[in-house]
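Chapter summary example.
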Amino acid sequence: MKIFAIRDESAEVQKDLAYLLYYEFEKRFYIELPEGADPWELPLLLDSFVRRNETTVNSYWGKVWVQQRIIPTDRQNIGEILRDNQLEEYDEYELLILAMGRCAQDDYYLVPIDEKDLPEEIIKRFATRIEDILPLEDYGLLVFFRDGMIKKCDLRKHFEKTLGFQILLKKPEYFEHVQMQTGGYGVSWDVNMTVSDSVLYRIGKKVPLTVADFRNFVSHRVINAAEAAEILGCSRQNIIDLTKRGKLHPLKTSDKNTLYLKSEILKRNWQ
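The structure predicted for these 271 residues follows.
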C-alpha cells in the first residue's frame, strides 16, 4: 500500500488536508479525511464528503479524484505522451506520480508518507476494517473485523430500503457471491452494490466468538474426502458415491477436493 498526504501548495502553512491510499495489486484508490476537516480547504470533490459527515472516500470516488488530475484516456496524442514518459500502457497511478498529483486546475499536490505518520484517528479506523466475511441464510452476513470483533449483520432491511439492492431480493442466490472490498473497506456484489465497513460495524450484532474460535472450528471440524473415507473405513470412491446419492452433503466441492463437516461423517457410523 502506498500512502500520500494531500497538501495545498498555495497555503501559507503547509499541512495534511487528506490522505490518498493506493493498493498496488488491485489498483484501488481510497481517500481518508481527518476528523473536523475544513471543506473550504479541500478539493471540490472531497468537500461534499465532509459536508455529509463522511470521513472515508470509497474507491469509486477516489478513482474519480485521481482521474481529474491526470491525462484522460481520450487525449489525442496519448500514445506519444506515454512513450515520452516510458510508460508501456495507460496507468492511472504512474501518471499521477509523474507530477506528484499536480494539475492545472488547482494547487493541490501529493507527498509520500509512511503509515506510522498517519494521524492516530485514521489509524484507529483501520482497526475496524473487515478481515473476513461469511454469507449466511436470509441475507445475513457474519463479519470479522480487524479489532477482533465478530458481528452478525442482517442486511435484508438495508436492501429493502435501497433501490440498488433490489436485484439481490429478487435473486437471493446472488447474495452468496459477496466479496470483501480491497483494504477491508466494505463488501460488494458489484460496483453499484456496496456496503461500507462502518455501516456493517454499526448495524451488526456482536457474536460471542473470536477469530481464533472460528479457525479452531474449521481446523478440527471440516475434513476432506480422504479423511472422511478413513473415518468410515471405506474408499474415496465410496465417499463420492454417497455424495452423488445425496447421503452425504459436502460443504464445498471442486475438481480436486471436497470438504465435509466431520460431524456428518461421524454420524454415518451411528446408522
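To summarize the output: The CA atoms of residues 8 and 214 lie 47 Å apart.
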